[in-house]
Amino acid sequence: MRLVLVGPPGAGKGTQAQFLAAHYSIPHIATGDIFRANLKAGTPLGIQAKAFMDKGELVPDSVTNEMVRDRLLQDDAVNGFLLDGFPRNVAQAEVLRANLAEKATPLTAVLELSIDNAEIVARLSSRRTCKECGLPTVNTDKCPTCGGDVYQREDDKAEVITRRLEVYEEQTAPIVSFYRSEGLLITVSAIGSVEEITERAISALSRVS
Ligand code: AMP
């Protein structure tokens, strides 16, 4: 299964990605997580990405495309992968298509999590992220999964959320039409419990894999 997960910030991509990656035994590759790990480690990549991330803007394509290309060459991605947060615009989608075509390993499907803006703002402003394992949680002091301390991501603060949604509409939403015209798009509603949404996704994906 070579899968891309698409949806606005706050649609629950990260959470669903964990379950779907485990279900299909494929690595969960989240570009936002890779940037944040680099930021924490103080690498040149992290330092370069920080200025864009703090404003809710996209990190330049040249940097992001190369990072993903390298990641997809690692051994664990040979038999499939789940990309979360990439591609984020049509140019990245075209680079990904070309990279995969070189290896004759095209995408199996693109899963879109659909949700409206009012629900997103409510979700993101109450979202907290674990400092230790990086998983999202809601308004708690400790991570329910590993017990680590939680924090509010700079880009989950109200003013940055608005900008991230604008960036999604302007730059990322067009990839939905791109993948629809490629015949790869599967859309499921992102409203409901985590388990319900996972079941919906697996059932929709069973028709293509
Ligand atoms: P996320 O965790 O997916 O919400 O990503 C957090 C931030 O990382 C985004 O707001 C961007 O600044 C950056 N980022 C993540 N993925 C990409 C991408 N594919 N292209 C450019 N920037 C990205």
Task: Describe this protein's structure.
With 209 residues, this protein is α/β, with parallel strands linked by helices. The N and C termini lie close together (7 Å). Helices cover 50% and strands 15% of the residues. The strands form two sheets. The protein has a five-stranded parallel sheet, sandwiched between helices. It has helices at residues 13-24, 31-41, 44-55, 61-72, 90-102, 117-125, 158-172, 174-181, 194-205; strands at residues 2-6, 28-30, 81-84, 109-114, 127-130, 136-138, 150-151, 185-189. The protein has a single domain, classed as 3-Layer(aba) Sandwich (Rossmann fold), CATH 3.40.50.300. It is built from nine helices and eight strands. Bound molecules: adenosine monophosphate. Adenosine monophosphate (AMP) binds at residues 9, 31-32, 35, 52-53, 56-59, 64, 85-86, 88, 92, 155, 164.
What descriptive keywords fit this protein?
single chain; 209 residues; alpha/beta; Rossmann fold; 5-stranded parallel sheet; 3-stranded antiparallel sheet; 8 strands; binds adenosine monophosphate
Give the secondary structure arrangement, pairings included.
Blueprint: E1 2-6, H1 13-24, E2 28-30, H2 31-41, H3 44-55, H4 61-72, E3 81-84, H5 90-102, E4 109-114, H6 117-125, E5 127-130, E6 136-138, E7 150-151, H7 158-172, H8 174-181, E8 185-189, H9 194-205
Helix pairs in contact: 1-9, 2-3, 4-5, 6-7
Bound molecules: adenosine monophosphate.
Adenosine monophosphate is lined by residues 9, 31-32, 35, 52-53, 56-59, 64, 85-86, 88, 92, 155, 164.
